[in-house]
Structures are given as structure tokens and as C-alpha cells.
Amino acid sequence: MTDYVVAPPPIAAVPVEGGGLFPVRRIFCVGRNYAAHAREMGADPDREPPFFFAKPADAILTGGRDLPYPPQTESLHFEVELVAAIGAGGAGIAVENALDHVWGYAAGIDMTRRDLQDVAKQMRRPWDLSKGFDHSAPIGTLVPASRIGHPSSGAIELSVDGTMRQSSDLTHMIWSVAETIAHLSASVRLEPGDLIFTGTPEGVGAVSRGQQMEGRIDGVGTVTARMLA
Ligand code: MN
């Protein structure tokens, strides 16, 4: 019997294809990793080093569950992203070895309170509450790299109520998964259980109450989430 003074939190986990659960330790996200999306956000995609932000581990939303429309926003945006799940930890990881640290991949959606993010940018404040709110990280089933390899090309798409809103290809990522891991692990020691949302292509937009989102990545799978009415 340990002497926690409140009940310890449950372990957030992502279902794995074929059974089992991947326990989530941290969620890192890459900003502006597709040139056309950087441009639509008013930035210059000049291959500046990647930058990162984070969401709480329990922001994940699995199993295609309903997503309650979050408070404090009138502009909730979708961003479909390839998610890499770290299975072997390390610091200062070299690009050449980086993919050895990836256990598997999933499709995810980096939900964003865009209006709060715009204010944060203007006021030079942190992005935490525009990015890291409850249920802000819908994610599909995780598939092991031992089965699908390491996807570096193929369609990445998101539709809302059956209408295609984002449609690009993984080849348009500015920083590859391996390069992203190398950069991130230069700042923090990565550990098994870490997820990395690797950035979104162009076409981001707002989603309304009652709408259904479906993200899809070739060779990886899908992620669905329905906005509660
Ligand atoms: Mn994003």
C-alpha cells in the first residue's frame, strides 16, 4: 500500500492493432512541418529548425470516441498528423539511428483552439491552453513499425462529414520523422511511451458541433472523432 494522498491517475494508453495497449508518457508536437501549412499560417517555411510544443498524456482520445466541443473557443481547428510512438528511449539520438527508436505509427488529429492560439501568438504567450486542452489529441490504432516499416510517403488526408478538407503527402514534410527525433532528443531525453505528432499539411479549418472527422494516412490507418452536438 503506497501512501499517495489522492488516487494516482490512470495510465493513458493507445490501442495497438492486433491487441495490447501502448502506454502514453508524453505527447510532443512539431509546429509548421509542411511548407504549404506554414504559409497558410502566415509563416515563412525556410527550414528553420523544428520547434515543439506539448499536450498532456491524457489529452488522447481513442476508439473513435465523441469529442465534446471544448470551452473558451469559437474556432476549433483540426490538424491531421502522422504520429510516431517511441519504444526505445534515448538522448542525443543521431538521425541515422532515429527510426530504431520508433515502436509504431498512428494517425492523429492535433485539435487546436485557433482563436486562443492567435491571441497567444499576438501577446507572446505560451500555446499550452490553445493546444493542450482535454481530448485535444484524437488518435487511431497504433500499428507496429515491425509490420508496416517507417512511412515516408503516401497520402495524408482529413475529411469532415465526407468532404475532403486536407489532402497532401508525407513526402511534403519539411523534417522527416528521423530528423524530428534527432532534434527533439537533443533537447529532452525521449522515453518509451512518448508520442510525437509530426505536423499537419495545409487545409486546416474549423469543425462544428455534430460534425464527423476522419483522418487517413496511407499504410498507417485512420482516426475518427465525432464532435458532440
Ligand atoms: Mn499540429
What's the SSE blueprint?
Elements: E1 13-15, E2 21-23, E3 26-30, H1 35-40, E4 52-55, E5 60-61, E6 66-67, E7 76-78, E8 80-86, H2 95-98, E9 102-109, E10 112-113, H3 114-123, H4 128-131, E11 137-138, E12 143-144, H5 145-148, E13 155-160, E14 163-169, H6 177-185, E15 194-197, E16 205-206, E17 212-217, E18 221-227
Parallel strand pairs: 3-15, 5-11, 6-18
Antiparallel strand pairs: 1-2, 3-4, 7-10, 7-16, 8-9, 8-15, 9-12, 13-14, 13-17, 17-18
The protein binds manganese (II) ion.
Describe this structure in words.
The protein has 229 residues and is α+β, with helices and mostly antiparallel strands. The protein has a single domain (13-227), classed as Fumarylacetoacetase-like, C-terminal domain (Fumarylacetoacetate hydrolase, domain 2), CATH 3.90.850. Helices cover 16% and strands 33% of the residues. It has six helices and 18 strands. The chain has a six-stranded mixed sheet. Strands 6-18-17-13-14 form a five-stranded mixed sheet, with no helix packed on it. The N and C termini lie far apart (43 Å). The structure holds manganese (II) ion. Manganese (II) ion is lined by residues 29, 79, 81, 110, 197, 199-200.
Provide the succession of SSEs: EEEHEEEEEHEEHHEEHEEHEEEE
Rg (C-alpha, Å): 17 Å
- What strand line-up does the widest sheet have? 4-3-15-8-9-12
Total DSSP E strands: 18
Which structural class best describes the helix and strand composition?
A: alpha+beta
Percent in helix: 10-25%
Number of domains: 1
CATH architecture: Alpha-Beta Complex
Please state roughly what percent of the residues sit in beta strands, choosing from under 5%, 5-15%, 15-25%, 25-35%, 35-45% or over 45%: 25-35%
CATH classification, class level: Alpha Beta
Please give the count of helices.
6
**What is the H level of CATH, i.e. the homologous superfamily?**
Fumarylacetoacetase-like, C-terminal domain
Distance between the termini: 43 Å
Shape: globular
Q: Round the mean pLDDT to the nearest integer and report it.
A: 96
Give the distinct bound molecules.
manganese (II) ion
Q: Sheet bearing the most strands, described?
A: 6 strands, mixed
CATH third-level topology: Fumarylacetoacetate hydrolase, domain 2
**Ranges with pLDDT <50 over ≥5 residues?**
none
